[in-house]
Design goal:
single chain, mainly alpha, binds flavin-adenine dinucleotide
Length: about 500
Amino acid sequence: MACSLVWFKRDLRVHDHAPLAAAAAAGPVLGLYVIEPGLWAQPDMATQHYLFIRESVSALAQQFAALGGRLLVRGGEMTAVLERLHAELGIDALYSHEETGNDWTFARDRAVAAWCRRHGVHWQEFRQFGVVRRLQDRDEWRPAWEALMAQPPLPPPARLAAPLPPLIGHRWPDPAALGLTDPDPPLRQRGGRANAELVLTDFLNERVLSYRGGISSPLSAPTACSRLSAHLAYGLLSLREVVHAARLAMANASGPQAERQRRGLAAFVSRLYWHCHFIQKLESEPALEFRNLHRGYDGLREADWSAAHFAAWSAGRTGWPLVDACMAMLRATGWLNFRMRAMLVSVAAYPLWLHWREPGLFLARQFLDYEPGIHWSQLQMQSGTTGINTARVYNPVKQARDHDPQGRFVRHWLPALRRVPDSWLFEPWRMPPAVQAQCGVRVGEDIPEPPVELERATRVAKERLYALRRDPGVRAARAAVLERHGSRLRPAARRKAAARASGAQLELEF
Ligand SMILES: Cc1cc2nc3c(=O)[nH]c(=O)nc-3n(C[C@H](O)[C@H](O)[C@H](O)COP(=O)(O)OP(=O)(O)OC[C@H]3O[C@@H](n4cnc5c(N)ncnc54)[C@H](O)[C@@H]3O)c2cc1C
């Protein structure tokens, strides 16, 4: 009995799922999730991604069953899985969402397209986000985003007619069997649509009140931010569902806090727009995962790679308290707020002068919400290699003074600092030996000594970057990058939008 196959990747839901709706309207449907060893062998994949997906697919399988359908989990490379299923069942058509993933998923999708052509199976792909495939003109992008978000989210199919032959599913292997040996952060968010819905409701009704003003400090951000990123990255909620829910909450806001709620929601919705704006960059230029968006920056840092700097930074042993505390939080939770992510990359890129690719792979594995399009664009932006963004250099000592003035955050994540007196907390490596003896914390033993002198190394790094920016050839090539990837908001509108989005704290990532 032939059927339609709905291939789930990073869209693990039955709500607002256009491929599922289209397949269900056409007849019997089989849902499929494939555990692909090739994907899990990639250097940007981690145990936490796998386990979050496993939790989410298990919940999805239950939803399928409740609708009378079946979600099959198989293991193997996608074309081999298709080959076998076609022999067992006969596949009429393949339905899925478009994916803007890493280089490996792009190649895999091309192989699937070739397989479908060879077997006469029609593969229909639907837009997952406000990303436009084969976009010709960046000016058309924003209206296309608005048009997609304006349509109402699709309800789940009323019923799924499952194909009847018994099919053998695959047991989820242990992460180690797929080569995933990194630890699962003990405090990471859990997968499953029900969890995603709870996070959304709680944010829109309560936590959004702290959004403006609360998202920059690592102390307040874990509750002030929406915490929807992982749920969006694996598609437990569609972006359109979230946009609609936020706009509805904005329309219904009432009572003494209504204005505050509306402003928080507006700032939040603007970030949902950025979400797609950044993924579009990778969609339009897949090579940005590997090479500089502006090729004029090639060679800037490559030859100076320092394994020791990378080791200190990634282990959270730089001696700069806020950097090390952020790494500790990341290891434990799989999440950090935007400003602290940007600060980590800035420290890697400027004083430590590391090319962005290895730090980017490391962070991709640390971030539960790893979304290649946002991630690689941000890595390049915070490293100054896009050529179109103002270089933003975050000083970790100033960031600590501004966003953790009492040192509560760093003392929480770095117990050794609990004994350091307040006056030395932001720069503990400067403690005189007598103070070290008094508080019982030895620099270089209990806490690391910074690998470079922060101010000097940052100044030298900026000079090197600015020298290149002034180069006439580099300046000339900037226009082409801007034309292809730049936001279409004019500078004044951009400043206004940023001010609206962030209140007093401008964090502009266009
Ligand atoms: C170096 C670096 C790497 C990053 N890598 C990722 C990544 O892999 N995946 C990811 O989802 N975000 C990434 N971000 C963006 C941002 O830090 C996270 O989206 C945010 O911290 C997630 O928490 P939240 O959902 O509570 O955010 P909220 O502030 O509540 O934002 C809501 C949603 O808007 C989107 N969003 C927010 N900020 C941005 C932004 N600056 N650019 C694009 N979209 C945004 C996300 O989908 C987020 O879930 C990165 C930022 C930096 C500086």
